[in-house]
Every structure is written in C-alpha cells, then in structure tokens.
Design a protein that fits this description.
Blueprint: E1 7-13, E2 17-24, E3 29-36, E4 40-41, E5 49-50, H1 53-71, E6 78-85, E7 90-93, E8 99-103, H2 114-121, H3 124-129, H4 138-148, H5 150-153, E9 158-161, H6 162-171, E10 175-176, H7 178-181, E11 187-188, E12 193-194, H8 196-202, E13 211-212, E14 218-221, H9 224-230, E15 237-243, H10 244-251, E16 260-263, E17 267-274, E18 286-289, E19 296-304, H11 306-320, H12 329-342, E20 351-353, E21 371-373, H13 387-413, E22 419-423, H14 430-440, E23 443-447, H15 452-464, H16 471-478, E24 481-485, H17 489-509
Parallel strand pairs: 1-6, 6-15, 10-13, 16-22, 22-23
Antiparallel strand pairs: 1-2, 2-3, 4-5, 7-8, 7-9, 11-12, 14-15, 16-17, 17-19, 18-19, 20-21, 23-24
Helix pairs in contact: 10-15, 11-13, 12-13, 13-14, 14-17, 15-16
C-alpha cells in the first residue's frame, strides 16, 4: 500500500504582510493567500516603528486557515508547518510568554545607541558577525531598551526573530536558527554560536538568546489551540524554517559554492553562496549564513527595487488609465511592460537614479537625492520622451544598481559568475529580466515558483518530515526552472556605455543636496 502524498503549509511573515502556501513534495504550490498588515508609528519617536503582535498573529491564523480551506487538500494530509520571515524583525518576550516589544525591519531606534557599540567593540564586531553598521539589528534594539526603557528591558527573557516567534506561537517551543540569528548582530557566524564576547562587552545576559537548531529540524507538534483554529491534526509537525531571503535562495536552487541569486522584489538582495565565510576587508557588504547549514553568503542589497517600480505604477501610470482598469494591478503591470518595451536600449539618453543604491555599509545612513537626467536639448525633443522611456529607464536603473553591487561581491569573492538565478515579483517582468541579462552580460534563469521564500520554507518542512534526506535531493525534486534568458551581445556592449554614464550620475547625485 503506497503512502499518501504529503503536503506542507508554509508561513512567510514578510515586510508587507503574511503569505501562506501549501506545497506538495514535488514543489507544486497548490494554494496561496496573502494578507497585508499595518505598523504602528509614534509621532514623538519618528525613528521607531512597531507592530501589534496580537494583530499579526490573528492575521497569520486567518490567512493560514483560508489557504487550507481553498487548497482542496484534506487537512489530514498536511503533515507539517514551517515558517520563514523578514530579516531584522524581532519580538522580545517575557518569561510568561508575553510580547514586550515587536518591531519590523524598518525600526530605526538602534541609531541612538550605535556609538555605544562602536566604542565597545570597534570593527571587531564586524569580524565576528559579518555585519556593519549596528543600526538595524536586534543588538542595538536591546541596548535601546536597556538605556531608554529599563523597566521593559528587565522583563525580557528571550529575543526572537519573527520566524522564531511564529514558530513559538505554533508549538510553544523557543528556538532560533542560523540564517536569521546571523541577522541579529549577536551570532558568531564562524562558529554558528551566540557570541559571548559581544554580550560581555555590552552587558547583555546570554539567557536572552534561544537555543539554535538547524533549519529542517522537527521540534514538536502544533498546540491543541492552533490545531483547532486551523482545522489540522494535533500531530501536525512544526519544522524550523529560516530567514526569508535565504529561504528564497534555497527555493531558487541557489545552494552550491559561487551560485548567484537575486531576490528581485520590493528590495533586491544579491547573494553569492560560499563554502566558508569570507569577509569584505573594506566592510562594504555583509557576510551571513545560508539556511542550508554549512554554507555562507556574501550579500549586497540595492535597497528599493520593485518599490520604485510600484511607485511609478501607483502615482504615474494608474491616474492615466481608464477607471475600469485602475485597480487591476496585473493589467497595469502589463501596460507598463508594453510601454517600456517600445523604448530602445538606453532609453534614448534618459537616465534614472531613483531609489536603488550601491551598497556601502560604511555610509549606511547617507542620503542621496533621486533624479532623472534628461537627454540634451530636452525642449526640442520633449515629444520623444514618453512614459515608456521613463518605465524603461527605471528598470535599467535597477539593473545598473544590481551590476554595481555584483561587482563588489565579485571583487571580494574573486569570482565572476556566468549565470544568475532571479526570483521574486520582478522576475515575472519579462522586459526587466531581459534588461538585467543584457546589463550583466550573463544568462538569467527564472524558477517556476517565483514565491521562492515559501518554496524554500517548504523544502525545510519536507526535510523535517523525512520526505527528503538532505537539501540537495530536495532541491533536485522540488525546484524547477521555467525559462532561461540569454544576454544579447549587442545590447550588452551598448549597456556597458550606458552603465558608465549611470554610475557617473549616481556618484555625483549625493553632492546635489
């Protein structure tokens, strides 16, 4: 008698909202539901951003239940749940399990205590953690509470990344894992252990830091309360997942030494896999842990990517469209892609420097203006500068920023890749993918499942229920390439000139303020 097909439920607690999906063991996504969430902004502390953990949890439960109900999969066939989540997002809990603080990746309160960390440790903290500067991470947020809200600080029992917290709410088990633990600035990425040196230097007790398990580990079953709310069996296992970007790399098959992946979504992290940790001697980019234990990652992030494209969609394209399609994002994206395709390589000289940046962690808080550089004699040629030129120039701007950041990664790794795997929402934009391939001069592969954070999380879950013995075998069976785009040599040569012009504008723009 053959065993029934196993299914797994994944929860992705992302920046804009939660996504829940159900996968089978072949990597097919059978159901996907999304819910947006809101953040809390305090006008008296404009740098501080928090979220309501009760509201987040309720939305996670409702979205997961909707995903299960609409999947057509018998709830008894869902064997496990795994969680991935945004990096630099943390929940501090008390010994009684009460959430004392919950903050997303946009909470900037760490800037107020950064000098304290620099004074105590200097560049040594980069040598241990692979990260600089200490602004976004759990470490400065803990120090902020220690200095500015000691009453709350005295009650903190555990520091959890958001995926750890959701896992805790599912199972009552408190664990962490290396990929998101590496994004706290408290993990020694070489030893894969919490750093006693950092905690001692900054007066933080080690008990704040949970036990570390490897992704793909089964830690128990869901609680009876969760089982009842989701309509699942009490025997549904909870599996350790990982950080969303690293799960995206896993879900795109980016696991071998020197593999290159680009998660082109709201932002665009660029990650190269390494067999051993390697630090940028100039501290411009980060070194972190892969969700695949025993692999490390060199990372640069261009910042705003799809965010800029969506800004143009919502504020420029949408108002120009007929009322019947203004609220249909899928149609608006199609219109924009068609318009952008009509503009030539280089957008007839229109250059955008709007949003994306060349990562340099030493200048992390520097402010650059966003500009468009119009062709010469713009008044004469005004009729030739169309919406399509703006759209294409924005996509070229994103591709140029990816190239600039990739050059830094290649310099540190002393390796130039011949291909890139691109996932995320912008991977669905065929014009962008072709531009990116032409700008980089390499072939670009697009996975079949572009919701690769969720798929990477599902891979962890399948390993946890022993459907696969390791990450390699799971990736071989569950990750598929939908298409491959090759660089046009003529376009690549033209883009080399346009890239040089873009980079000159980028470097000069900072002095315009």
């Amino acid at each position: 008698m053959s065993m029934p097909e196993p299914y797994v439920l994944t929860i992705d607690a992302g920046t804009s909202g939660v996504r829940c999906a159900i996968f089978d063991s072949y990597g097919n996504m059978l159901s996907l539901e999304r819910t947006k969430w809101e953040y809390i902004y305090d006008p008296t502390r404009p740098y501080a951003v928090e979220f309501n953990p009760k509201d987040f949890w309720n939305k996670i439960v409702l979205t997961a239940r909707k995903t299960i109900d609409r999947s057509g999969v018998p709830s008894s066939a869902i064997r496990a749940i795994a969680v991935t989540g945004m990096r630099y997002s943390y929940v501090f809990i008390s010994k009684e399990g009460k959430e004392l603080y919950a903050g997303p990746n946009t909470d900037g309160r760490g800037v107020l205590v950064q000098a304290e960390i620099e004074k105590a440790m200097g560049h040594r903290i980069f040598e241990i953690t692979g990260h600089w500067p200490p602004v976004l991470f759990a470490l400065p947020r803990l120090l902020w509470f220690k200095r500015y809200n000691p009453e709350v600080f005295s009650k903190i029992w555990k520091v959890l990344s958001i995926n750890d917290w959701v896992t805790y709410r599912l199972s009552s088990k408190i664990v962490s894992e290396p990929s998101n633990a590496a994004e706290t600035m408290l993990l020694d990425i070489h030893k894969l252990e919490w750093s006693e040196e950092i905690c001692e230097a900054l007066g933080l007790p080690m008990y704040l830091l949970p036990e570390i398990e490897k992704p793909g580990t089964a830690i128990g079953t869901i609680t009876g309360e969760v089982a009842s709310k989701l309509g699942l069996s009490n025997n549904t296992e909870v599996i350790v997942g990982g950080a969303d970007t690293q799960c995206a790399m896993l879900g795109a098959g980016v696991i071998a030494d020197k593999d290159l992946g680009i998660a082109a979504g709201t932002t665009a992290p660029i990650q190269m896999v390494l067999n051993s940790p390697l630090l940028d001697p100039h501290m411009r980019i980060w070194t972190t842990c892969h969700v695949y234990l025993g692999k490390w990652i060199l990372e640069a992030n261009i910042g705003a990517a799809g965010l800029v494209y969506d800004w143009f969609k919502d504020n420029i394209t949408k108002p120009l469209m007929p009322p019947e399609i203004r609220e249909k994002d899928e149609v608006l994206y199609e219109v924009m892609e068609k318009l952008g395709s009509k503009a030539p390589v280089g957008s007839d000289g229109l250059v955008s420097s709007l949003g994306p940046q060349i990562m340099d962690a030493r200048k992390f808080v520097s402010i650059r203006p966003s500009v468009f550089l119009f062709p010469q004699q713009v008044l004469v040629r005004a009729r030739q500068v169309t919406a399509g030129h703006f759209i294409r120039s924005i996509l070229e701007n994103i591709a140029f920023a990816i190239r600039a950041n990739l050059e830094t990664i290649c310099e540190v790794a002393k390796y130039t890749p011949l291909a890139a795997i691109v996932t995320g929402g912008m991977a669905k934009n065929k014009l962008f993918v072709q531009i990116l391939s032409d700008v980089l001069g390499v072939s670009v592969k697009i996975p079949k499942v572009t919701e690769s954070s969720s798929l990477g999380c599902a891979i962890c879950a399948m390993i946890g229920i022993r459907e696969y013995r390791d990450f390699e075998s799971a990736v071989r069976s569950m990750v598929k390439v939908s298409r491959e785009v090759h660089a046009d040599e003529k376009n690549h040569n033209a883009y080399t000139t346009h890239y040089s012009r873009w980079k000159r504008l980028y470097l000069k723009a900072e002095s315009l303020l």
